[in-house]
Structures are given as C-alpha cells and as structure tokens.
Write a structure and sequence with these properties.
This protein has 466 residues and is of the alpha/beta class. Helices cover 35% and strands 14% of the residues. Helix 8 (292-307) packs across helix 10 (339-352) and helix 8 crosses helix 11 (357-380). The two termini are 30 Å apart.
C-alpha cells in the first residue's frame, strides 16, 4: 500500500464519529504527490535504499515537533493554527531518508499527561478497546501505529511518554540516551529530560527510525558527539542472535505488591524466554526508585514553568485583547492553556520561588543524582541490561483518573527513573492481560541502545514462536 493510500485511509477513518482521534492534522495529498512524483516505488510502504532507509515509508509525527508543511499545536489552544518557520532536525532527517510525513498526532497538552486526555482536540482512543486510554503523552503516535495507519511514528519521552503508550497500545517504543537525538525543533517541556523517541509495529521498525534520526547536531547544545547509530548493525538477524554472555538485572523495586498480577506473570514469562536465549538473569536493587515520581514532579514542572513563559500572547500563538500588557498575559494564558498545564506551571513556579528553591528544587536535584548513581552502581557490577514491567497496570478507562492527578502521576512509576538518569529504555509487547496489551521494559547503560535492541529483538522473536 502506498503512502498516498494510507493517507486516504487515515483521512476517511479519522472523519468518522468512531475515529480514534489519533491525528490532529493530515498532509495534503497533492503536496505529497509532488514530493515524490516520478519516483515510482518511492510511494510504497517499506522500500529502502543504501542512503534512503525509509524510502516511501509513511511516518506519523507527534504534534510537538515543528514542521514546515503542517501546523504545530502541542495539543493546546494556545498554538491553534501555529506554523513554524523551520523544521525539527528529526523530521528533516526522516524526510531525507525518504520517509513521508502523513500527519501530526494527538498528544497531552505540551506533553503533560499520561493518557492523551489532556488535549484541546479531545482524547485519543486505544485501538484495542475504545473505552480506554492509549497512554500519553504520545498517545496519538502509539495509537496510529497500533491501528496500522503507519508502521513508524515519532514521539517524545520526558518521563515515559513513549514507553508508557507503547505498552498500553501493544507496540514498540524506544527512548534513546539523552543526547542521542537532536532536540532542535522539539517544543520544550522539561529541557533536561525531553528526548525524541520512536514507535514501531516491530523492534526493527522502531530501531530503523531511531537509526535515521540519531546523530550529532550542532544546533542542539545537549547533542552528544557519539550519538550516531548504524542502521545496518542496529537490528540483529533473529535467526542467529542470542544472549549468551549477557547479564540481565531484575530490580526488585519494580515488582511491588500493587503490580497487576497479569503483568507480573507476563514479565516472568518474558524473563524465562531471555534465560532460554542464553542470558543470565539476576535480582538487583535500585533503592531510590520510590523517589523517582516525586522527584520528577518537582523538576519537570519547574522546567516547564520556565519554558512555557514564552507562550504569553506576544511571541507565539493566540492573543486575548486586554487593557494592559499584564492583563493580556493573564487572559491569554488563562484561555489558551488547559487545567493540567496550569497546575504544573504553578507547581513549578512554587518550587523555584524564593524561600522554597533549595527545599524543593535543590532537594530534587540531589535525589536525581542518587537515582543516577543507583544505575551506575548496578551497571558497574556486571549487569548489561535491566528488564522490568513498563507500566503497573494495563490501559485504564477514559475518565477514570483524569480528576485524580496523583493517581495519574503514579502511572509513570516505572518509566521516570530512566528519564531522570538519562539512560535509554524501550518497551516491547509481552502479551495481554484481560484482552489488553502490556509491555516489558529494557533499560541499558548510557549509549548502549544497540545491546538493548538486540535483546528486544530476541525476545520479540521468542514470544512470536511460543
């Protein structure tokens, strides 16, 4: 099926009352035809070439990555209709590799949420059960892949926003090492945590997209110098790949009594497959894990309160008229931003305020260092990878947690530690619980994505054959 055929399928399905609401804007068919006119098989899904690894592949892009041809709204009324004068590096690279952007996907407003219910354009539905959430904040991208609209999509992961929706939608999601992928053109939420990640229907798809968009970018001061991935070596041949000599740690803190029983059983079965593939599996401890969520929800809102100050009605987005500049700022932000964004801005501003800075922000930074030290210690003891559940439960009902922020924040309990430490992580499907997909999470040392992807590929193959 060509990218143009997929675009028409998406356009038809998203216009129905029963749509997933996965997309917020779609590419223009005439513009797409012009972009690869005369290239023959370039319009076909899944082609490839030596220097154009995504030739003709339809890709969806989360709506917080700026694009020239489509609006960038970040799921917010504040940016309704906004068009960027430049394009994100990750989007440019996927286009240069032959990928075709078919649309921008729905998301929690400015990336703040775990369910894609906090969107000015309405919630995205889970393709496996439309009464349930797809996860967030990259729920639109995860749902688009799970529904088969695209085989690959871009998202962003600040505290788990790629891995968590990947698990709840039954697809593969990769958060790379902080600095692996340029953040240039990613609308900032929390700059020390934000990373562009990838979704795929398979490990190969997610990894191939990651290989295309990774690499040093001088326009991003946080971009690493050793961040390129080889698209040739990143995915091993499943027929010959094994895990002999690999030690996989299982952190006890990720298996609390409150963990869903079905997820526990699916995770244990996945570990059995990893053992059968030759891996040594051993129990480890990461004692500061229980501090990750409160630490994250001090640091991320603090950075957001600074980053989102630019949305004031003067430089970007909508403006509400008022008698004075101060009144204009207030009215614009009140009308333009949703309740969750306002909540986090207020939390972050309080954490940074005089008299509270060291008690909250300073303490959270010290806890973050302790969480990073936990991973350094475990990886320094001969552990090559970690394996955990991705989420504490399967997808929950739409509306079930939206009025209880603390319950919603607890959905990030297994994903925030890796974000705070800056290490790579990925979620892979490991089965279903009561008909809903669940994921297992691989975590790797800094810059060791290829080893993590190798193990995920082995597990994916073993689960398909079992």
């Amino acid at each position: 099926m060509t990218a143009l055929d997929l675009l028409e399928t998406i356009r038809r399905d998203e216009s129905l009352d029963s749509s997933l609401n996965a997309f917020v804007s779609l590419a223009d068919r005439d513009a797409l035809e012009a972009s690869f006119g005369g290239r023959g098989e370039a319009g076909r899904r899944g082609g490839g070439g030596e220097n154009r690894a995504l030739e003709g592949v339809a890709v969806a892009v989360k709506d917080n990555l700026v694009t020239l041809d489509l609006p960038t709204t970040c799921g917010s009324n504040m940016l309704d209709g906004y068009r960027s004068p430049f394009e994100a590096t990750a989007v440019r690279l996927l286009r240069e590799a032959g990928g075709i952007v078919v649309g921008k996907t729905n998301m929690d407003e400015f990336g703040m949420g775990s369910s894609t219910e906090h969107s000015a354009w309405g919630p995205t539905l889970n393709p496996h059960d439309r009464t349930r959430v797809p996860g967030g904040s990259s729920g639109g991208s995860a749902a688009a892949v799970a529904a088969g609209y695209v085989s690959m999509a871009l998202g962003s992961d600040t505290g788990g926003s790629v891995r968590q929706p990947a698990a709840l939608c039954g697809v593969v999601g990769i958060k790379p090492t902080y600095g692996r992928v340029s953040r240039y053109g990613l609308v900032a939420f929390a700059s020390s945590l934000d990373q562009i990640g990838t979704f795929g229907g398979t490990v190969h798809d997610a990894a191939a997209l990651l290989a295309v968009i990774s690499g040093h970018d001088p326009r991003d001061a946080t971009s690493g110098n050793r961040c390129a991935l080889s698209s040739v070596d990143v995915v091993p041949d499943p027929a010959t790949a094994g895990l002999s000599g690999i030690t996989i740690g299982v952190p006890v803190e990720y298996f609390p009594d409150t963990l869903d029983t079905g997820i526990r059983h699916r995770t244990e079965r996945a570990l059995d497959h990893l053992r059968a593939a030759g891996a040594t599996v051993r129990e480890v401890t990461l004692p500061n894990t229980d501090l990750a969520v409160p630490c994250y929800y001090v640091l991320a809102p603090a950075e957001a309160s600074s980053n989102l100050a630019r949305f004031d009605g003067v430089r970007f987005g909508q403006r509400v008229s008022a008698w004075s500049v101060a009144e204009m700022y207030e009215a614009t932000r009140r009308q333009g931003m949703g309740p969750e964004v306002k909540r986090r801005i207020m939390l972050g501003t309080f954490a940074l305020s005089a008299g509270y800075y060291d008690a909250y922000y300073g303490t959270a930074q010290r806890v973050r260092a302790d969480i990073r030290a936990d991973f350094e210690r475990v990886f320094g003891l001969g552990v090559d990878l970690l394996f955990t559940p991705t989420t504490p439960s399967p997808a929950f009902l739409i509306g079930e947690k939206i009025d209880d922020p603390l319950e919603m924040y607890r959905e990030d309990i297994f994903t925030t530690p890796a974000s705070l430490a800056g290490i790579p992580g990925m979620s892979v499907p490991i089965g279903s619980v009561q008909g809903l997909p669940v994921g297992g999470q691989f975590l790797a040392p800094w810059w060791e994505e290829e080893m993590m992807i190798r193990a995920a590929c082995v597990l994916e193959t073993a689960l398909k054959e079992s």
